[in-house]
Write a structure and sequence with these properties.
The complex is a heterodimer of chains A (111) and B (111). With 111 residues, chain A is mostly beta strands. Chain A is 0% helix and 59% strand. Chain A is globular. Chain B has 111 residues and is mostly beta strands. In chain B, strand 9 (87-94) and strand 10 form a beta hairpin. Chain B is globular and about 40 Å long. Chain B is built from no helices and 11 strands. Helix content of chain B is 0%, strand content 59%. In chain B, strands 2, 4, 5, 6, 9, 10 and 11 form a 7-stranded mixed sheet that branches. Classes of the chains: A mainly beta (111), B mainly beta (111). The A-B interface holds A 31-32, 34, 36, 41-45, 48, 88, 90, 92, 97-99, 101-104 and B 4, 31, 33, 40-43, 45, 48, 50, 56, 58, 90, 94, 97-105.
Chain lengths: 111, 111
């Protein structure tokens, strides 16, 4: 059975800290991995990763995929209170239409 | 930008009532999805549709049905609402590269 596991489940940091969120997966016929940010509303898209070893970057957020070890990390540098959210990882298999979601990492950034 | 809208942000229904949740997307996407999101369980797929009048069960279809009469509209139906269907319901639409775009969500409470 396909599986996506995120760690940690929750995290509390101070503003300015750097955080690393983890996502490991066991998915048959992997196609792509996506990261979403969810505040008190619908998930919003952050990154899509398809190739191993290529970093995607957007401002203070970056992500990289390791297809050999079957994991991805999401880094946030110089965290701000506005980064507080649930971060979701999802995997697209080649064979299916639907995403397989992890349970998310809840990040709280305190002032 | 892709826009996915849902008919209600908040809904309160009584046990046994028939409930309709509607979702509309404006990007001519073929694939649309309904998820429910509960604390500790993450996002779980209820149903998806890959074309007009075509539907597939997701992981938790029991107690739900769907309707897709037009490409832009995907409806989720609770035939007889029960308290265990109290949840956040999220609709999504999928682009060709696999990315899913989410609507704002409907928080349904069944009393």
């Amino acid at each position: 059975e396909d599986k996506v596991v995120q760690s940690p489940l929750s995290l509390v940091v101070h503003e300015g800290d750097t955080v690393t969120l983890n996502c490991s997966y066991e998915v048959t016929n992997f196609r792509s991995l996506l990261w979403y940010k969810q505040e008190k509303k619908a998930p919003t898209f952050l990154f899509m990763l398809t190739s191993s070893g290529i970093e995607k970057k957007s401002g203070r957020l970056s992500s990289i995929l390791d297809k050999k070890e079957l994991f991805s990390i999401l880094n946030i540098t110089a965290t701000q209170t506005g980064d507080s959210a649930v971060y979701l990882c999802a995997v697209i298999p080649n064979s299916g239409y639907a995403l397989n979601f992890g349970k998310g990492t809840s990040l709280l950034v305190t002032p | 930008d892709v826009k996915v809208t849902q008919s209600s942000r908040y809904l309160v229904k009584r046990t046994g009532e028939k409930v309709f949740l509607e979702c509309v997307q404006d990007m001519d996407h073929e694939n649309m999805f309904w998820y429910r999101q509960d604390p500790g369980l993450g996002l779980r797929l209820i149903y998806f549709s890959y074309d007009v009048k075509m539907k597939e069960k997701g992981d938790i279809p029991e107690g739900y049905s769907v309707s897709r009469e037009k490409k832009e509209r995907f409806s989720l139906i609770l035939e007889s609402a029960s308290t265990n269907q109290t949840s956040m319901y999220l609709c999504a639409s999928k682009s060709g590269d696999g990315r899913q775009y989410f609507g704002p969500g409907t928080r349904l409470t069944v009393t």
